[in-house]
Every structure is written in structure tokens, then in C-alpha cells.
Amino acid sequence: MTPLVMAPPAATAPAPGGELHYRRCEWCNSATASTHMLCPVCGSADLAPALSAGAGTVQRLLRPSRRGPLPGRPYLVTLDEGFSVPAGVVGGLPGAVPIGARVELVSAEDDGRLLTFRPVPRT
Ligand SMILES: [Zn+2]
């Protein structure tokens, strides 16, 4: 069991923050989430740590059974670097983050396992 994370006091619109680390394969240059120990493409263990810019695209809604501790609704987010992570998306219309929407990282907690994104306003 993971203890519940207390909401920060006086929360208005959270500023973008947190660092999302990932790994890039030294052999085939594939990007993978930092939770993977081996490259899912070529199986190499030579993965170099890297830091994501935190910008990505909503890929799909996850099944509620996979929600876990994620805040908001659980989505699979594909980062611009080319890897995907399960993450909560907050701040959008209730239950209506469109697939393909651009999102940015708000926070990364629990060593990057608890990720929160928010939609990027269209300009
Ligand atoms: Zn590889």
C-alpha cells in the first residue's frame, strides 16, 4: 500500500514542476520509461539516464482497474522523447481530456512513478 499523498496547501493552478527521468538505449536509441530495466526494443541493459522535457500527448484512457494512486483520470501519455507513461491528467474539463491533447508535466512524485500532467491550452 502506498500512503495517500496530501494535497499541497493553498493549491491554485500548480506551476509546472517535477522532473521526469527516462532511459535511452545506447544500442538502438529507443526511449523507455525509467521503470524499465531492459530496452523493450532490443533487450539491451545499456540504458543511459535522460531527462524529459515534460511535454507529451494523451494516448488513451487507461482502464479504471489500472488507475492506482494517480490523481485525476488515468491516461497513457506519450512523451515527445518517444516513451509512454501512465499518468493522471488534471485541470481539464471533467472526464474530457481528448485523445491527442497536448499535455505538460505538473509534478512527478514517488520517484517518478506518480506523474501528473495538465492540458496545454491551445494558442
Ligand atoms: Zn535498445
Full CATH superfamily name: Nucleic acid-binding proteins
User: What is the average of the pLDDT values?
Assistant: 82
Report the principal-axis shape: elongated
CATH topology (fold) name: OB fold (Dihydrolipoamide Acetyltransferase, E2P)
Cofactors, ions, other ligands: zinc ion
Low-confidence stretches: 7-15
Distance between the termini: 41 Å
The total strand number stands at 8
Beta-strand content: 35-45%
Q: Provide the domain count.
A: 1
CATH class: Mainly Beta
Order of helices and strands: EEEEEEEE
**Radius of gyration in whole Å, from Cα?**
15 Å
Outline the biggest β-sheet. 5 strands, mixed, barrel
The structure class reads mainly beta
Walk me through the structure.
It is a single chain. By secondary structure, this protein is an all-beta fold. The chain has a single domain (21-119), classed as OB fold (Dihydrolipoamide Acetyltransferase, E2P) (Beta Barrel), CATH 2.40.50.140. The protein is 0% helix and 38% strand. The chain is built from no helices and eight strands. The chain has strands at residues 21-25, 31-33, 47-51, 55-61, 73-79, 84-89, 102-109, 114-119. The strands form two sheets. Strands 4-5-6-8-7 form a five-stranded mixed beta barrel. Strand 7 and strand 8 form a beta hairpin. The protein is elongated and about 40 Å long. The relative contact order is 0.23. Mean pLDDT is 82; it is low at 7-15. Zinc ion binds at residues 25, 27-28, 30, 39, 41-42, 44.
